[in-house]
Amino acid sequence: MTKMKPQKPAQHVKHADWKSDKDDWKGVIGGSLIDSDVTVLFYATDEVGIGPKWHVHPYDEIFVLRKGRARFTIGDEVIEASEGDVLMGPAAVPHKYENLGPGRLESIDIHLSRDWIQTDLVDPDAT
Asked: Where is 110: in which H helix or E strand?
């Protein structure tokens, strides 16, 4: 078997270098930090009803539910998802999600972009 020579070196980011909160599962690894065209966000909350607000990105985003249950609104679709589920939010489609409880919600949000680009929007469901 022939070994392939790597085109670029492996990357290793220590937990302390991406963790942005006292919560161990909140933070961001930007694509430039790992020399990649992907940005990874880690989100966590213990509060039911809380989550990322209505916003949009110019690229696709993949959501991996690590723990808990969430209600996603992606465009006109409302999807209830639970631990282990994976969802995809298409580019230019507004979206949000919230912790349905009971208990903790943890997600890994994979942005298919080297840079995190987000435009926050007025939530049409807000009263």
From this structure: strand 105-111
Mode of pairing for the β-strands spanning 95-99 and 105-111: unpaired
- Higher pLDDT among residues 73 and 127, named by residue: 73
Query: CA-based diameter of the chain, in Å?
Result: 63
pLDDT cut 70: percent of the chain above it: 97
Amino acid at 66: R
| Amino acid at the residue 40 | V
Residue 65: beta bridge partners? Answer: 107
Cβ atoms of residues 54 and 97 within 8 Å: no
**pTM of this prediction?**
0.88
Rounded Cα distance, 70 and 65, in Å = 8
- Residue 86 sits at φ, ψ, to 5 deg, of -125, 135
Q: Name the amino acid, one letter, at 87.
A: L
Q: For 90, which DSSP code?
A: P
